[in-house]
Fold this protein.
Amino acid sequence: MKKFDVLRKCVMFRALDDKQLREVEKMCDPEEFEAGTVICKQDCKEENLYVVEHGTVGIILEVGPLAQRQVQAVTDYEVFGWSAMIDPYICTAIVKALEKTKVLAFDGQELSSLCVAKPEIGCRVSRGIARVVAMRLRQAYAQLLGVTSQV
């Protein structure tokens, strides 16, 4: 699938018109990860934001020295690595490819710089990041409520 079409289907870029999306499209590069590859490490600096073109990654929390729990999955047209755009740029979870996964990778700082270089695009991209973070937070709340209501 063409980069433009993948980005058009991504909630983060939903508010961009075609011309703006073409500008953003130039900023990403395709990458591919084999199943089992750790893409992001919890508590480490994150430099890239990713849009999944095809495949699935797990978002995994390290809850102790030897304990990990997958809390969410990210699949086609969804975003992960949003920490690359938000100070202090530290990853909040481990992200691991659950199957062979094709992504579009953005340099988080370059995307953030749109706020100054092209404010209208930067503002819309920043709102898109806020949407992604809010959705993940809602999902986490729903999981927490599910766990606590079973106790």
The chain has a mean pLDDT of 94. The first strand starts at residue 28 and ends at 33. Strands lie at 28-33, 38-40, 48-54, 57-64, 67-74, 79-80, 94-97, 101-107.
